[in-house]
Amino acid sequence: MTRHIGILLFPGVEELDAIGPWEVLSFWTRGFPDDGYAVSTVSRDGGPVECAKGLTVSAGHSFADAPEFEVLLHPGGQGTRPMLTDERHLAWVREQRAAVPLMTSVCTGSLVYAAAGLLDGRPATTHWRSLELLAELDPTVEVRGEDRFVDDGDVITSAGVSAGIDMALHLVARFAGTSRAREVRRGIEYDPQPPI
């Protein structure tokens, strides 16, 4: 039985927050189908979404026709700011928490999780510029500002933007083993050595 990983898209989503993990997870799931996972994107209505820096992407599913997810990834970006007080979206996030075994976030996606009450008493991280806001949204969160990602069992949060790639590779290792994750890392030629 195929297990589904969903990546949420929404207006103002930070491109690399969603596309970085997509690259990792789609390389894995398409290259190694016997591992039993598939990845797709989902948005509220399933239509095109304009991202934070102008890239337009189309979601594979709407909320109404999405498969049951084993993992849901909530990216960040400027589009998360209105979500922090959007009761409709926060209610949807809580519904997913009740049904989805593993909730993950990239960057300021964790702020939405905090606003929805998903991080109560948990360790978590976010983009370095939003660490104080994370603590304000939920003072019970154990903010881990130095961590690239934080795996707390059924919730994983990652730091900003490119950290989502690391978190996605961690997911591959968690579900298919370290050797598979290394194959994926090599396949996408991800070998961070900043030139500056």
From TrEMBL:
Residues 5-173 form the DJ-1/PfpI domain. It comes from the Bacteria. GO terms for biological process: regulation of DNA-templated transcription. This is Transcriptional regulator GlxA family with amidase domain. It comes from Saccharopolyspora gloriosae. The lineage of its organism: Bacteria, Bacillati, Actinomycetota, Actinomycetes, Pseudonocardiales.
